[in-house]
Amino acid sequence: MKNYSFSVLAIGLAISIAGFSKKASQQWLFIGTCASEITDYTKYALNRLGEGCIAVGDIPCIISAPESIDTPAELQFFFIGKSAADIMDLASFKHMSDCTK
């Protein structure tokens, strides 16, 4: 009975921890300047330094992607089938476009 109680306690603790853990993600910094570049994977750089943006606007500043997306090639594949609006939904911060295109 003692082993059963310990097992139940351990499983409950594991479920509780899993429920509160945050999924890891990669942060990609948008280095483009125009809304027309949002879906261009070459306009993003992996944001390992934790740089951030504080303004709100019409283009992404930083987007979050799954942890496994850590190369430009993987980001390109991740963008397949996503619209600019879909990518904007991934943006944790946004800023104003700097172009007139």
Describe the structure.
It is a single chain. With 101 residues, this protein is an alpha+beta fold. 33% of the residues lie in helices and 22% in strands. It contains three helices and four strands; from the N terminus they run H-E-E-E-H-H-E. Strands 2-1-3-4 form a four-stranded antiparallel sheet. Mean pLDDT is 77; it is low at 6-22.
**Order of helices and strands, N to C?**
HEEEHHE
Low-confidence stretches: 6-22
Head-to-tail CA distance between termini: 71 Å
- Rg over CA atoms, rounded to whole Å, is 19 Å
Going across the major beta sheet, what is the strand order? 2-1-3-4
Helical segment count: 3
Morphology call:
globular
Strand content: 15-25%
Describe the structure using short key phrases.
22% strand; 101 residues; 3 helices; 4-stranded antiparallel sheet; alpha+beta
Briefly characterize the structure.
This protein is an alpha+beta fold.
List the helices and strands and how they pair.
Blueprint: H1 2-20, E1 25-30, E2 44-46, E3 59-66, H2 72-79, H3 84-89, E4 91-95
Antiparallel strand pairs: 1-2, 1-3, 3-4
